[in-house]
Amino acid sequence: MVKEYDLLVIGTGTGGSIAASKCKEAGWSVAIIDDRPFGGTCSQRGCDPKKVLVGIAELTDWNERMYGKGVRTAARFDWRNLMEFKRTFTATIPQDTEEKFKKLGVGSYHGKAIFYSENELKVGSELLKGKYILIATGAEPIEMGIGGEEYLRASDEFLELEELPKRIVFVGGGFISFEFAHIAARAGSEVHIVHRSERVLKHFDPDLVDLLMERSKEVGIQVHLEVSVDAIEKRGDSFVVKGKQNEKELEWETDLVVHGAGRTAALDMELDRGNVERDKKGVRVNEYMQSVSNPYVYAAGDAASTDGPPLTPIAKAESLLVAANLLEGNYEKAKYPVIPSVVFTVPKLASVGMSEQQAKKSGLDFHVEYQNTTDWFTYKRTNESAAAFKVITDQEEGVVLGAHLLSEEADELINLFALAIRFKLSLQELKDMPFAYPTSASDISYMI
């Protein structure tokens, strides 16, 4: 027997749950489906639990920096205790999420959704028909196509480790590898990052990345560049990561190998049966977030092929957009304002707006202000050894084009620059703004 709904949503994270709630509140019949615990990746297996772990890494680093400067006791990292604390944030999310949907009157289905036709889904033995279908399934690690790939552990598995291994190899030099490497190194593990090209964290300012690389080395993280990983082998209780660097064969013996080599849209749902086209980024959609090949289907978040970066705020914005277009007819087009992004290493690396390379290609009359700030009061007071900024301004218009920060305060300070860019605040307005003093924000007038 077919169960019919106005909207079927695949995925219970940010990209799916917001649209589901909005449409239900508008009077639609809605069902939501997930083959993993309800609540999505960010809150359970990504951003939020990761930042809990980062907090302890920051505290440990702070303690080490201030040892002998008012601090006399060394911090001890208790991984098992940290995992217990992390679970206080994640343990109730599936039940809380499902109860929220139940109160709203949203139907819940547990299981893998696959297309049965253009507007029908199979979930186990259930056949569901939707006037519309929203795909918001997020992302998953890419397949690397190497021998022993089954020994790779995903980032969500790292966040569930009961014991932290003594030796860890991270494959890939992006967000995941660097953030988790900084956590593991502060916890006492021997850490290696193996990356295939000559630059890591390629979407961030290279000068600041170089400073972060130096700091990473200081805390014991070994980064190996231009290495192609060819295979992972099991050797007793350990693993051996094998690779090549300029034809030179290399290998690392380790207790854990973590996949940090990139993610792709999670779309294992027999899209062909639903006439849903995809490309390497995700479901191909038009400017209204509607499938280009199936008008019944929309997509949002990491599952959609758009110009937006794979960040939670983008998934939220796209989910709201989908809801608006479903309820009112396609009338609102996807727009991507400047979105700040942060690598939660210790210290943090942040970026918003135009890069120096983009400014050079733009033809604009621009100025780059680049300074090391370790001797500024804000950073010297906590003995930070890596702190710097690069701010790019439009000389003719007198506004900020881009900001790039490296410091313990970067994750908060970058939001002020995002506001300045979004609302085109003039440099003079920023200089005249009386921020609380002494704070990192009060330094802005010296950064532009």
UniProtKB/TrEMBL annotation:
Keywords: FAD, Flavoprotein, NAD, Nucleotide-binding. One of its GO terms (molecular function) is nucleotide binding. Pfam families: Pyr_redox_2, Pyr_redox_dim. FAD binds at K51, D302. Its cofactor is FAD. Signal peptide: none annotated. Binds 1 FAD per subunit. NAD(+) binds at G172, G173, G174, F175, I176, S177, F178, E179, G262. Residues 5-317 form the FAD/NAD(P)-binding domain. Residues 339-444 form the Pyridine nucleotide-disulphide oxidoreductase dimerisation domain. Disulfide bonds join C42-C47. Belongs to the class-I pyridine nucleotide-disulfide oxidoreductase family. This is Glutathione reductase (NADPH). It comes from Sporosarcina newyorkensis. The lineage of its organism: Bacteria, Bacillati, Bacillota, Bacilli, Bacillales.
